[in-house]
Amino acid sequence: MTDGADPVAAWAASGAMWLTGHPDGPPLSPAAAVVPALQATARELPVEVDVAELLAGRAALLGLGRRGRTSANGSCRLLPTTDGWVAVNLARPSDAESVGALVEAVVDDDPWAVLTRAAARMTGADLVDRGTLLGIPVAELPGPGRVAPAAAFTLHRLGEAGTTPDVDGELVVDLSAMWAGPLCAHLLGRTGMRVVKVESTRRPDGARAGHPGFYEWLHAGHASVTLDLATAAGRTALAELVDRADVVVESSRPRALAQLGIRAEAVVASRPGRTWVSITGYGRTGEAAHRVAFGDDAAVAAGLVARDDEGLPVFCADAVADPISGLSAAVGALASRAKGGGHLVEVAMVDAVRATLATPVEPAAAHRTPDGDWVVKTPTGEHPVAPPRPPAC
Question: Which domains are delineated in the chain?
Answer without folding.
Answer: 7-69+363-384 (no CATH), 77-147 (no CATH), 154-286+321-354 (3.40.50.10540)
